[in-house]
What does this fold into?
Amino acid sequence: MALGATQRLHDGVAAVETMTRFALAVLALASGVYTYLGARSILDGSPTAVFFAAVIYSASVSVGIYAFWSYMARFYPHVTSRGGRTAMLGVMAVGAAMILAMSSWLNAAALAGSAAVEQHLSETVEDYTADLDRAHQNALAAQNLLPDIQRASERFAQLAGVERQSGSLTGTTGSGSVVQLLSQMSAQMKSLTANINASREQVDGLFAQGQKRLETMRSLVSAPGTIEPRADQFSTEAVALTGVITSLAQTSIAPSIRRAADDLSLGFIAPVPDGGAADLVNRQNQVMDTVRTSVTAQSKALAKAADEILARPPVQERRFVPMSSAEAVLNYAQDFIPAWAGAISIDLLPGVMVFILAVVHGAIRRQEENLPFAERITAAELLRALEVQRAVTASGVNIEQTIAKAEADDKTFAPRPQPAPELTPEPASEGEPNNITAIDLKSRSRDRTHEDR
It folds into this structure.
């Protein structure tokens, strides 16, 4: 039974040898085709130069992969020593790493390069969207101060009107120095309000431009067709959007509010009291001191709010970096694991066949070692041995004397094995075929002797 199993393994190895070579050739050719597509995407120059360079590189890769795995399939299964197996495994690991470096990443670029570039463009759009929103928020942060400034302006205007009509502040009606001061403060607040409103219109216009640029960029990411022209147009839109974001950062009204707040307190100029009586002049001075205190408090509040706006981190200028398909598939490898698995499998699948052959040959060796010599020898080998024995006997050479003389001449000669017992066919039991009895060795020997004569 063991001999039959070993023979079947031998027959199986011989049967799949042609298939193994065919599979290696097909896998090497497939890897070369995808390597050509990946190499063409990263080469620069004229179309003719790129074509020939990519063809030569891919052909070299195909030949190298086929030769490497052919050598491994031929030699690795027959290396039995532990040191030899370790050395061959080391060579296999180095070769696999070289194949991954020169072929697999280009295969992955051919399989998922366009999708990886689109992934890069999509993430770039998200980054630019975040930058545009942050720049817009920073530019509009000063708008939150607008209600406070408007209330202060209205309060000064109302006080001036009440003083003019009823003289509730100084006790004397009319447009005197107090009314003039209050009207002046109200006018300054209204001017600041107008500047903020004008800035808001400019910010809204720039933000609308940025939104249009982003919409165009998103359409380029999802548009059909080859990725190269879309990536070029995307780069143009990214440069224009960068300019919009920079303009938004420069249109912030916060620095102007900070300067206006300083002018309110530092540039406060009270008019000379114009009252005709000393008592009226005294009351006017008191009211103007109160106005000065109110203006100083308002100035501090505006300065603090403006400082908080200016303390926000500015939007850093973003530079769009185009990527080739090979670079993108490396940078976003975690998002394209199936493509990487397919690209690597094409190159390293022959290694599985090498290990299968190694396991089969190991099983054959173990089964043959456990068989006795009489069961390991085939009928053809036995016939050849008998023919050699007859030829030696016919030449008049005494085998036993020759062996004894050789042992005497060489002390290190291995002990002579005992002669094997004559092979006599055992009678077959009933119903069981006996292949040995089907061979009539003596009759075959007589026939050959008669033919020789």
